[in-house]
Design a protein that fits this description.
Layout (H helix, E strand, L loop, with lengths): L15 E8 L3 H12 L4 E2 L4 E3 L4 E3 L1 E6 L4 E7 L1 E7 L13 E7 L9 E7 L6 H9 L4 E7 L13
Antiparallel strand pairs: 1-9, 1-10, 2-5, 3-4, 5-6, 6-9, 7-8
InterPro entries: IPExxxVDY_fam
Protein name: IPExxxVDY family protein
Length: 159
């Protein structure tokens, strides 16, 4: 009897562009500025991205441009969560100290605040034009293109 193997190593092969953004703005404010400068219509999704059993959650905005077959996503890369710390001080009174923990959606880029994911089927998005428009926004410190195939945690960007 013959033995058949099915190799599914590279099953999910989506073509998308990824842009990293460094800025100190809140997510809704950045989405508003992107809507104005890039002529988008980003809207917050009702559910955030949750990872590791609700350990961290990331805000996500989305717009489907059906006329050009492009899906735009703005996703936060940073989640800050306050947790109670376990400390044994050996004293009579117990102190409740809270620790602020930081989690990243893409751990390879810890300094990046937000990512823009552009999923285009026709490959008609001019990435240099988008980067120039992003650099024109005074609240954005810097933005640059990221090669998603070199990321170890590219599975986190499937939504």
């Amino acid at each position: 009897m013959a033995l058949h193997k099915l190799l599914v190593d590279d099953f999910y092969d989506d073509t998308y562009k990824l842009i990293a953004i460094h800025c100190g703005l809140e997510d809704y404010r950045l989405a508003y500025l992107l809507n104005q400068s890039l002529e988008l219509n980003l809207e917050r999704k009702p559910d955030d991205l949750d990872f590791e059993y609700l350990k961290s959650s990331y805000s996500i905005f989305e717009w489907n441009n059906t006329s050009q077959y492009i899906t735009w996503n703005l996703v936060s890369n940073v989640c800050k969560k306050e947790e109670a710390s376990l400390s044994s001080s050996g004293t009579l009174f117990q102190t409740n100290d809270n620790v602020l923990k930081t989690f990243n959606l893409v751990p390879e880029f810890k300094k990046v605040d937000y990512f823009i994911k552009i999923s285009d089927e026709i490959q008609n998005v001019n990435e240099k034009l988008i980067l120039n428009k992003l650099q024109a926004i005074p609240q954005i410190i810097t933005s640059y293109s990221v090669n998603p195939k070199q990321l170890k945690s590219k599975d986190h960007l499937i939504f």
